[in-house]
Design a protein that fits this description.
This protein is an alpha+beta fold. The chain has two domains: about 5-140, MutM-like, N-terminal (N-terminal domain of MutM-like DNA repair proteins), CATH 3.20.190.10; about 160-285, Helicase, Ruva Protein, domain 3 (Orthogonal Bundle), CATH 1.10.8.50. It has helices at about 5-20, 40-45, 160-165, 175-180, 190-200, 205-210, 215-235; strands at about 20-30, 50-55, 60-65, 70-75, 80-85, 85-90, 105-110, 120-125, 130-135, 275-280, 285. Helix 1 (about 5-20) crosses helix 7 and helix 3 packs across helix 7.
């Protein structure tokens, strides 16, 4: 399932096409994805102008000139591709074939911009774990998909003091605490492993112990912000099915320090350790026992 940087990369690819455009028509080609499409899905979007395309955690959030707000999740294999005029808009280099099987094109947005430019944005999802739901703008934060989400791991809001407060009193491994979406929204397995390595904190350390160390909290908060920012800049990690809106892969995976590197030498200068893999709460955790004691 794509993590926050992948979703943010998709948002940035779609933003110039969607924002300021009017939805002329929507083709809904099946009744459901992970969940049923909302009633009158196409009709309620037809004619609406797109004011903004945002992101909350791993969700895309499209604000229109009137209700509803459209919430979209990519699931495990969902992706968008953009067609302009008679051809397909394919900026960037291509390193991995996208799913172009029309059997998996489940929703098509026909857009018209103020300058007369027309685009088609196609949502393709072979596994159909993605979804599109409606919400009322006034009650957006209370929507079941968004209610209770924690702080975003981007920007400066997440600092050592805030992180210490979030972790205080939690008798659970730090890895599990950081994956709790009620604490930090959108932070996933890959980037938690990478941030803990950067901060030299063992994934087995109890969260409350980290909370009690102001220096460790400050270093960890900075590591989280940095690893997310670098992954967004690189276009995400693009594991398995994930692709960007232009069809190309991101390349942050070439910068992984521990994730999926079991048995390989630790890349930290002077460490000399070997990356290990353990299982925590059913998920693989990669870390270096030598420099993350």
């Amino acid at each position: 399932m794509p993590e926050l940087p992948e979703v943010e990369t998709v948002r940035r690819g779609l933003q110039p096409v969607f924002e300021g455009a009017r939805i002329i028509e929507v083709e809904q080609r099946r009744p459901n994805l992970r969940y049923p499409f909302p009633a009158d899905f196409a009709a309620r979007l037809r004619g609406r102008a797109v004011v903004s395309l945002g992101r909350r955690a791993k969700y895309l959030v499209m604000h229109l000139d009137a209700d509803p707000v459209l919430i979209c999740h990519l699931g495990m294999s969902g992706s968008f591709r953009i067609h302009s005029g008679e051809g397909e808009s394919l900026p960037g280099d291509f390193h991995y074939a996208r799913s172009k099987d029309e059997a998996h094109d489940h929703a098509v947005f026909h857009l018209e911009r103020a300058d007369g430019g027309r685009h088609r944005v196609v949502f393709n999802d072979p596994r159909r774990f993605g979804f599109m739901l409606f919400a009322d703008a006034a009650a957006l934060d209370a929507h079941p998909s968004l209610a209770g989400l924690g702080v975003e791991p981007t920007g400066n809001a997440l600092d050592g003091k805030l992180l210490s407060g979030l972790l205080s009193g939690r008798k659970t491994p730090i890895k599990a605490a950081l994956l709790d979406q009620r604490l930090i929204a959108g932070l996933g397995n890959i980037y938690v492993c990478e941030a803990l390595w950067r901060a030299r904190i063992s994934p087995l350390t109890q969260a409350h112990a980290v909370a009690a160390d102001p220096v460790a909290c400050a270093v960890l908060a900075q590591a989280i912000r940095e690893v997310i920012a670098e992954a967004i800049e690189a276009g995400g990690s693009s594991l398995r099915d994930h692709i960007r809106t232009d069809g190309s892969l991101g390349y942050f995976q070439h910068s992984f320090s521990v994730y999926d590197r079991e048995g390989e030498p630790c890349v930290r200068g002077g460490c000399g350790g070997t990356v290990a893999r353990i299982v925590q709460s059913g998920r693989s955790t990669f870390y270096c026992p030598s420099c993350q004691p």
